[in-house]
User: Fold this.
Amino acid sequence: MSAPLLEVSGLTMRFGGLVAVDTLDLTADRGRITAVIGPNGAGKTTVFNCLTGFYRPTAGRLLLRHPGKGEVELQALPGYAVARYGVVRTFQNIRLFPRMTVLENLLVAQHTELMRKSAFSIAGLLGLKGWRDAQATALDRARFWIERLDLTRVADEEAGNLSYGVQRRVEIARAMNTNPLLLCLDEPAAGLNPRETAALGELLQGIRAEFGIGILLIEHDMSLVMGISDRIHVVDHGKKIAEGTPAEIRADERVIKAYLGEPDEAEVPPEVAQDMPELEGPRA
Ligand SMILES: Nc1ncnc2c1ncn2[C@@H]1O[C@H](COP(=O)(O)OP(=O)(O)O)[C@@H](O)[C@H]1O
Ligand SMILES: [Mg+2]
Assistant:
């Protein structure tokens, strides 16, 4: 087994007195789906915000092994540079450009790469073959992902007019069309119906198999997490409380407790109750 694509060690993020992420260790591999689960407020989104350059961590090391650029310490990069190394994300609350079409949303995500190919000059834009090639490649790639995510019919529609489930697919297409090494998905099944969630699971498995990228998945839908993850990390109050395969996590006492609390204060999220019958134990 080669060294992990991503190695997070000792990640800590404080907001004033609150320690949202507390000395967390985490790895993600190529060709694997690594899930991060945990109750609301556990610190999951904050981990993504640190990884993708939205927050500078209070402490810790975020090591990415880039095939071309070697070992890159993400926490030391300026935030905007992280995507350049192939770390891309989707958001818990969809963030597309609502007044742009689906195709435009995908192309704009490739904007930085296109501009670099032009050397940020008008001569580059107009004359150089490199730019024209890059532009053609960008369009091809956008087309590929539009088809792959079954968005051809809505490619020219404004993203903001599409249904929630379709917007979720656009987000994934937009992320994938930048050619990521590590795709970070923050609750991609939120708001999807069971049929859409099942389709999302198949899509992610297809991407894993075909492109061999690393996928980091934050998700509350246990049917999805248990169905497609290779490894699961469970976080509570910013700390990792368990790590293992889906089968190991289902059976883990600490996980059951973190999700259910003490029996009399338990408030089981419906999807957990429904999809993780084992976790219903303490309430029965
Ligand atoms: N920018 C911020 N400023 C202050 N507190 C924050 C900020 N972002 C997150 N938090 C807090 O950090 C904790 C973890 O939040 P979050 O990472 O969003 O949890 P999760 O995604 O697991 O639900 C919560 O208590 C949240 O209120
Ligand atoms: Mg969150």
